[in-house]
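Entry:
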Amino acid sequence: MTRSGNFILSLALTGGSMLAPACALTPPAQTSGAAKSDNGVALAVVGQRCTETVETELPGVPLVETHVQVEVRNTAPPPLVIHRDAFHLRGADGRPIPTASWHAEEPLSVEAGQTRTFELRFMSRGGLSCTKEMQLEASTGITKGDAPVQIGAVSFVPSHA
């Protein structure tokens, strides 16, 4: 068998997992735990990946890309609607960084008694650092009926290898 054939066979036997570690999300190094609302909603950061890239054209300002795996639990009726485009991330300077996730404008629903997990992507030059605390805020990103859910931010410090 050829070298490329061995590689393809290895991927097939492992379910493609040879590529997973580079893209895998890991639990944060520290987290404040789930934020909870008065009407049965919980918001948590269950995974993350953070990278800082220093580019030659802007050597003093790294590009920070953060992927956050978010879990939303709805314990009581009615269903929730998640508006991912209304979530933002705050870094040490307090500036809100909007999500750069593809298809974030498409709402997700969570029935009563259900949990939904999804990923958000944030990118920033300045404002975020992979070694400092961040806060994920839902703002108006979760609604129950016609009203936004009032829920606190989830603070976390990214873990990095």
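Confidence is low (pLDDT under 50) at residues 1-22.
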